[in-house]
Every structure is written in C-alpha cells, then in structure tokens.
Amino acid sequence: MRNRPSSTAIRSLCSALMFALGAAAIGYALLGGSGSSSAAAKPARPARHVSMGPWRPIPDADGTFIHATEVAEAYSPATKSWRELATPPKTQDFCRRSAVWTGKEMLVWGCEVTAYDPATDTWRRLPDAPTRQGITVWTGQELIGWGGGCCGDADSTGSAYNPTTNTWRKLAASPLAPSQSPAGAWNGHELVLFVSGLDPELKPVPGAARAAAYDPSTDTWRLVTPVPERGQPVQAVWDGREIVALSFQSGSTVALAKRPATDRWHRIGTVDPGRGQEQIVWTGRELLFWTAETSSDGLGYWPKKDRWDSFPLQPLEHRSDPAVAWTGRELIVFGGIASHTPPPVGAAAMPRYLADGASYRPPAHAPPPMPVCCGG
Q1: Cβ(277)–Cβ(16) under 8 Å?
Q2: What does pTM read for this prediction?
Q3: Which residues neighbour 161 within 8 Å (Cβ) at sequence distance 6 or greater?
Q4: Is the pLDDT of residue 110 over 80?
Q5: Residue 214 falls within a domain, yes or no?
Q6: How many Cβ atoms are within 10 Å of 205's Cβ, its own excluded?
Q7: How far from the centroid of its chain's Cα atoms is residue 318's Cα?
C-alpha cells in the first residue's frame, strides 16, 4: 500500500460495488434488489418485536486511504479481505462524487468523470459532463445525473452519458425547483425526483414543482404528486412496485410509499425523532431503515407481510456520510465523518475521517444454523 499525503481519497468495495471518498468524506453506493410491495398505512412509529441477526466488523486494510489521494481498493465480503486496485486518474479534490455500475464498468461522477473496469483493472477518463449532478442513476443504457450545486447555489439541469457512444446529452428543461441534493429513484423506465422547493437560502422557489418524473426514451418530464405536508425528502428507493421515500416532517423522519399507477402517497410508519441522518436500503424482500449518527437500532419493513422488525445497533462509532451498499446478501457500512468530536480548546474545528466498517446480514439471507447434535 502506498501513502500519498493529500486531501482526498478513494476506497472501493468492488464486490459490493461501493465507493467511499476519504478526506472528502462523501459516501456513495449502488443499492440493488427488486421485488414487490403491498404496504399498509401506519399512523405512527410501528412496534418492534423481533431482534434480527448480528453485525460483523470489516477489517481495515492499513488505514492509508485517510490523507491519501488516488488510492482505490476492493473489499471481498466472501474472504473478508482487501486488495489494491490500479491507481485512478488524478481528479479535483473536494467534489461531490457518485457511482453507478453498468454491468461492465463502474462510472464515477464528480467534478470529472472516470470509469473503472474490474476485468482488466484499468481506469479511463470520460468526456466532461455538461452539467453537475446531485443524484445519479443507471438506466441500463445511460448514466443520468440531475441537480447539484455547492454553497449558495443549486441546479435544476441534468445530463446523460452513453458508454456505447462515449457521448453526453443534456436533458430537457425540468419543471423542478433547483436542488443540491434531490431525492429520487429509477423505477425501470423513469427517474422520479423529489425536491424541497426551497432555494439555498430556504426561500420557496415561485412556480417551480417539487416532484416530477423524467422519461429518457422521450426526453420528457411529467409532474407527479410531491411528498405530502411539504415535507423535506431525504432518501428514496424503488422496491419493484412502489417508490418509498423518507421525508423529514415536524421533527420526525416519516416513511412514505407511492405507486405510479395511483400517484397517491400512503404512510408506512414514523421513525423515531432525533435519530439523525437516515438511510434506506431495499434488499429485494424488505426495506432496511437505520442511522449511523445515533445509538438507535435499525428497522426492517416487510411489505408483503406489512410487518416491522428491528435489527441490532451497528457496532461503529457515530458517523455521518458513510458509504453504504447492499451486496445481495449483506448491508455494508464503511467510513464517513466522526460525529460529536469537538476540537481541543483554541483549535480549529476539523473533520475526523473514519476508516472502519461493519456488515449486517438479515436472517432471510443468512446461512441456516448448524444442527444441534447429541452429546458424545
């Protein structure tokens, strides 16, 4: 492993298709899964009655991805080991980055765009994107990004990259209010997006929509029903039949679901208030809700059974912006910025970046228990 003192870093979990930026501390992950849902409405936070299986630690390679630059590594859940990848191209520091998996390459979009091919362990630099991105999705043919921004600005534009032709195109103008970090999901034929409708100064954007769906086959937008009660959308995922969104409303994070056919929202449940930065993952069978910022256990929701379970508190220090991935069997959480770490008296407040992680395998994906045998 090679130490390269600098201000940014990249560590990849290729088996999980997950990348995490070290010093920039922006986590990004590809969340897989498909399935069906028939969730019923819930008036408040659901009762938790089943404690699910344990977490296990992920070994750190040697910590050199902290204060390093252009370093990429792959983690194998099967062998619980890391390996160093080819050196990525030099890109700008402190840029918001996202990644998608095309089936052949991982496309990484930040201030610049690169691609990694695990079959040949090679990187390549892609043409510059014509817009920024606050959210990215892979449609099966194109990488689409929309929104983005920094500091006192926000975008309402988007663009798409086609790996086959190695070209970009700008999306049609959207009806949405600009957003640095829109919530959304790809449902198989449309990118459905939700924004707060507020500008960076938290003032309403006159005449702008808070929800819309984009169809890349026709390059057109259509309005859809926004998150109710003018909630702040924070996360969204497609479970095969419904868009499931997390919305911050009146001090609580509320889980909502909406079917495209009816375009009507219904409440799944209310997550405990004050839990911090919520995460949501679809495993193909259930929705996992949890936060890495507080000492709270996680929640699992089974749409087909309309049942809530709980799973244990993650065995990690509190953190924000960890990289998160669902591998098909396990939830992996890695890296991020340490929470609640005040600097020494008189010292400047500097973020503390983390280089550890843990994985959680729900019971449905865990190996069967060993049979209990007779004594000798």
Answers
A1: no
A2: 0.80
A3: 107, 113, 126, 127, 129, 142, 143, 167, 168
A4: yes
A5: yes
A6: 18
A7: 18
